[in-house]
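Sequence design from tokenized structure. All designs in this work follow the same two-part layout: the structure record, then the generated sequence. An example of the structure record is given first.
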């Protein structure tokens, strides 16, 4: 049985992420979506909110499980029998960072392989950071995220903007 993990911040999850999730779930026996409990980064959504959000948008995929993790990704893989790390590559600009991370993880645990999925062309320009920025200026994010996520991001941005008035 091949268990893969798709790790990331998912702040928020986008159609680009969902494209990778669906395709990876079709390739591997089980796909874990691993949300980093990121202390260094200030996120729009709490870890728990992101776990719930990812669970909602992947509920039609029976072999997908959503978890959060902290510490090293390879340690999570070792403890949970994960064989493959999945990452999406949107453009050449992603490649350098992704290659370095894959090589670092391979050095830390040679049992775990990283496999890259090329993001589908129609989603290759989407990023969570641009979605957060567009929403903060009340722009339309409906082309980038599912409806449930759009409502959550808009609500969060309103709260965030009023807290910082
Ligand atoms: O969506 P992101 O923020 O680009 O995801 C980055 C992530 C979570 C995959 C990466 O930061 C990570 O794996 N962090 C866990 C700590 C770790 O294992 N670091 C060593 C790998 S370089």
């Amino acid at each position: 049985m091949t268990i893969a993990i798709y790790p990331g911040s998912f702040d928020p999850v986008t159609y680009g992420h969902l494209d990778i999730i669906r395709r990876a779930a079709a390739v591997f026996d089980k796909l874990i979506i691993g949300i980093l409990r990121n202390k260094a980064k200030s996120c729009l959504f709490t870890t728990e909110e992101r776990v719930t959000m990812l669970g909602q948008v992947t509920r039609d995929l029976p072999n997908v499980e959503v978890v959060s993790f902290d510490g090293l990704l390879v340690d999570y893989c070792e403890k949970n029998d994960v064989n493959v790390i999945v990452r999406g590559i949107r453009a050449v600009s992603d490649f350098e960072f992704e290659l370095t991370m894959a090589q670092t993880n391979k050095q830390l645990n040679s049992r775990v392989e990283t496999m890259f999925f090329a993001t589908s062309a129609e989603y290759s320009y989407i990023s969570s950071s641009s979605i957060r920025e567009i929403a903060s200026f009340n722009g339309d994010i409906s082309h980038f995220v599912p409806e449930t996520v759009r409502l959550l991001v808009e609500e969060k941005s309103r709260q965030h903007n009023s807290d910082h008035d």
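Residues 74 and 108 are 7 Å apart (CA to CA). We note this feature because it recurs in several other targets discussed in the main text.
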